[in-house]
Backbone:
């Protein structure tokens, strides 16, 4: 081991050190402590175990002798009158380098063979909490804590913590669920506006359904805007119906990818073809997953990029029989461009860090136009596909959602003009659907005005003004005269409040292309439009998707496996809910489609050793 790595090793602290170690001054004017040879200046040996972790650095400007930690550089006064207690505490509990290199414990020995334990201040309860989170996040069975390999691993890492039983693990998961549930309730109680809930039904193999919902307060407009279909799921259904009609187009692409990754020899041959046509081999080739249509889109993306390489492979390998023809490649490219809109829209609808309700109408309208364009084309292939998709589109989106139409009106880049623009092309000028949206928009706003007026008309009575002296009482009496002015203004405010929506609609809309944080816009305009801003906050918070994007692309639903299905309902609820809540605090643990399809095989150079390739192939197999 070279000297550069010494800082990464925690040495044994049982050796004694001499007091006359080489000293480095703290400051330029520090005096040297090198012994002069006289008996009075000779330093005695330092016998404490802490000196194996500290080094003398000399005296500072005040003449105090200092030492520093070898690992983190922390300095302490080390004169004889100060002792070594502060340095010992630093090693045991404070040094970040020691704690980082040895998370369990370290044994110190002094010259008298007495033991001194340096413990990481972790508790068994914290360890149990981490185990419970691991079970929840990774869908592990409760028997995970009793696996011999897991217990052996924990025992090797530390003797400080002990693995619990499966019953204790289940109790810890239920406790974790209660803690997270309390956090969620606190967040909901602190929410200033109304709360939007999404539901995605979980089912078990025993066909049991799990859903529980209590609503204790009145709904706006008698619950007229309560239910909205998941837009991401609708797009998934539309695309799935279309892909059933055109599976023959992607068949040759799928078989080509399978052929190229079937053996190492074929991989190398395809890599040579890629180099021959001067393409980037690091981009990778993807194979689709049958249950996720976005993987088909990503497969087409990578296959189109290597189009010239496929042609070269056909010439170089007589066994390759699945290369698409020129006309078939044209259809593949058309399909790729057509699916790109649905792919981007699904990802956009499934966002969780920004409002999505104002995105609904523009994207759905563009989807409608894309389907109509394909239906009018002369290509029988895409016409058949679009016909199936349009049938499914009409089933769910023939009538636009009213509350989501209101959401786009509350976007200052679109307003009422965009709703009129869309409805005229869908239903004709002055359609009843447009009048219905206008009527419900003002009805919803009036409810906010009514509820706000009831809260704002409360005024303190004259008796509510405190007084501590006759002089103060006279001043308060004079101030009460202004209450008449306040009451008159209050009546004027009510009239203004009822026209806030009109004033907003009359203002010129913003440019559609600008990048606008719509929530910041309404927060900044709250003094001008208090009730309208409150309504915008609630309407824009409505999510239009119930699931993350990866679930939206999948044909499978949320089904509890055979192990989860055997659990009691309260335990199954704790596992499902806790996982969603914990994942909501950080990055999603859902396996992304790009991670599934990316680099299913590696295009290695000829110079890559065979052993390295074998190890990589084995790790790829184990990863799936």
Residues:
């Amino acid at each position: 081991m070279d000297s550069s790595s010494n800082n990464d090793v925690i040495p044994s602290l049982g050796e004694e050190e001499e007091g006359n170690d080489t000293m480095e001054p703290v400051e330029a004017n520090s005096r040297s402590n090198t012994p002069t040879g006289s008996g009075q200046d000779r330093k005695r040996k330092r016998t404490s175990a802490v000196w194996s972790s500290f080094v003398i650095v000399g005296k500072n400007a005040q003449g105090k002798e200092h030492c520093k930690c070898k690992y983190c550089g922390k300095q302490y006064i080390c004169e004889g009158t100060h002792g070594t207690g502060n340095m010992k505490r630093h090693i045991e509990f404070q040094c970040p380098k020691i704690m980082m290199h040895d998370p369990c414990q370290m044994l110190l020995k002094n010259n008298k063979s007495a033991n001194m334990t340096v413990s990481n201040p972790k508790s068994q309860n914290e360890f149990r909490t981490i185990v419970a989170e691991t079970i929840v996040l990774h869908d592990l069975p409760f028997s995970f804590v009793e696996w011999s390999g897991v217990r052996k691993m924990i025992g090797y890492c530390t003797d400080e913590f002990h693995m619990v039983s499966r019953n204790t693990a289940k109790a810890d998961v239920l406790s974790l669920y209660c803690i997270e549930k309390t956090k969620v309730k606190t967040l909901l109680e602190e929410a200033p506006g109304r709360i939007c809930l999404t539901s995605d039904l979980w089912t078990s193999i025993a066909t049991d359904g799990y859903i529980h919902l209590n609503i204790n307060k009145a709904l706006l407009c008698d619950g007229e805007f309560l239910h909205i279909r998941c837009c991401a799921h609708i797009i998934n259904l539309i695309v799935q119906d279309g892909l059933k009609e055109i599976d023959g187009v992607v068949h040759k692409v799928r078989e080509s990818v399978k052929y190229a990754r079937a053996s190492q020899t074929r991989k190398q041959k395809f890599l040579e073809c890629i180099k021959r046509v001067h393409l980037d081999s690091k981009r990778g080739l993807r194979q689709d997953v049958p249950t996720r249509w976005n993987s088909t889109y990503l497969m087409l993306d990578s296959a189109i990029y290597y189009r010239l390489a496929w042609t070269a492979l056909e010439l170089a390998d007589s066994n390759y029989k699945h290369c698409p023809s020129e006309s078939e490649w044209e259809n593949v490219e058309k399909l790729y461009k057509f699916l790109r809109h649905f792919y981007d829209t699904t990802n956009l609808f499934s966002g969780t860090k920004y409002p999505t309700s104002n995105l609904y109408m523009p994207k759905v309208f563009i989807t409608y136009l894309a389907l109509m364009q394909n239906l009018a084309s002369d290509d029988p292939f895409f016409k058949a596909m679009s016909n199936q998709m349009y049938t499914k589109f009409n089933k769910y989106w023939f009538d636009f959602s009213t509350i989501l139409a209101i959401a786009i009106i509350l976007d200052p880049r679109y307003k009422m003009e965009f709703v009129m623009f869309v409805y005229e092309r869908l239903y004709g000028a002055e359609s009843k659907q447009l009048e219905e949206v206008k009527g419900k928009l003002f009805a919803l706003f009036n409810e906010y005005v009514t509820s706000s007026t009831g809260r704002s008309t409360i005024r303190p009575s004259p008796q509510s003004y405190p007084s501590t002296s006759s002089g103060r009482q006279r001043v308060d009496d004079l101030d009460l005269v202004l209450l008449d002015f306040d009451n008159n203004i209050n009546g004027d405010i009510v009239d203004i409040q009822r026209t806030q929506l009109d004033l907003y609609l009359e203002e010129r809309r913003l440019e559609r292309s600008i990048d606008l944080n719509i929530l910041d816009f309404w927060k900044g305009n709250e003094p001008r439009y208090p009730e309208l801003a409150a309504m915008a906050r609630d309407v824009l918070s409505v999510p239009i998707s119930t699931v993350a994007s990866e679930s939206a692309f999948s044909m499978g639903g949320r089904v509890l496996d055979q192990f989860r299905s055997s659990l009691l309902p309260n335990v199954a609820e704790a596992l499902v809910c806790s996982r969603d809540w914990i994942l909501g605090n950080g990055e999603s643990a859902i396996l992304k489609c790009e991670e599934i399809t990316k680099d299913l095989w590696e295009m290695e150079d000829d110079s890559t050793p065979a052993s390295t390739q074998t190890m990589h192939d084995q790790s790829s197999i184990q990863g799936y």
